[in-house]
Amino acid sequence: xxxxxxxxxxxxxxxxxxxxxxxxxxxxxxxxxxxxxxxxxxxxxxxxxxxxxxxxxxxxxxxxxxxxxxxxxxxxxxxxxxxxxxxxxxxxxxxxxxxxxxxxxxxxxxxxxxxxxxxxxxxxxxxxxxxxxxxxxxxxxxxxxxxxxxxxxxxxxxxxxxxxxxxxxxxxxxxxxxxxxxxxxxxxxxxxxxxxxxxxxxxxxxxxxxxxxxxxxxxxxxxxxxxxxxxxxxxxxxxxxxxxxxxxxxxxxxxxxxxxxxxxxxxxxxxxxxxxxxxxxxxxxxxxxxxxxxxxxxxxxxxxxxxxxxxxxxxxxxxxxxxxxxxxxxxxxxxxxxxxxxxxxxxxxxxxxxxxxxxxxxxxxxxxxxxxxxxxxx
Length: 378
What we know:
Blueprint lengths: L1 H5 L3 H12 L8 H14 L5 E6 L8 E6 L7 E7 L16 E3 L2 E3 L3 H21 L6 E6 L10 H8 L2 E6 L15 E10 L3 E2 L10 H13 L9 E9 L5 E2 L2 E10 L2 H12 L9 E10 L6 H17 L15 H6 L4 E2 L6 E2 L7 E3 L3 H14 L2
Parallel strand pairs: 3-6, 3-7, 7-14
Antiparallel strand pairs: 1-2, 2-6, 4-5, 5-16, 8-12, 8-13, 9-11, 10-12, 15-16
């Protein structure tokens, strides 16, 4: 493995990651994300692959599907990467410029997940040039993961149904750990509509939407049960029109995380079934489970054991993290019964922050692990 590692140019890898990071790509900026898709597509020029570009819709950019020979004919490996980020345009020139400080490579989206996406692409490119792959590969680059994959979920699930394995290039966790289980994610919106009145002269006539929502916030937050792996968070609230008006409207958004499908069904029903304490206030609840739980099955455990053996050959120990609270596109594929490994991207920290960084020392080992997975999975 030392010979293989020496054949990978870390400097070139860092320069390529820099090029990608410097194409800022916040999800809802279609033009910006499509520039990133252009850059990814250009990386496959001259390789024996077929690319399909799926036009964006509903305020999201395009998706790119890259297939190696035989991918239409038999099940193989599905690799999932997203190229959108949460950082707004201008982050690169302001709070988070691309820079290298020792082992740390900083930049918007470098850890989540442009480094991981590039490392996997480079691994596939080496396999294609050497002709060492055993299974066909479908590499799917999506543009909307950071907002819940509203336009890519159907595409992901369709490809997963034809896959034998799924490898997800989300960043590594807690010092390089791989992800073999994630919580499911639910998103809801609750709207209260009360009866407005002047807060001075007609206070008795009013029925406050904000007062009602305050009760609902406490009820929702009270559903958190750490012992069961259930968390509920009211993340946003808005309402009212003026200080001297009994508020007619109030709205909140709710985030739900669950460890298993049964808890997902139970909590979804509980949130959708919320009723007002004040009968004069109307309550409307919409939403549901957005990502199913990613549970560690025996097939996933076996795939992880294989990856861990490969990592040992490369020269590092691959540990799987405890259940991860954040969701990913791997939730969709694991829920379909496809053996899925997640967190195969670069090590680092600070996802979604102004100090986000990836560790350059992880680039070569993680890319070699992806290469060996593509070469050895059957």
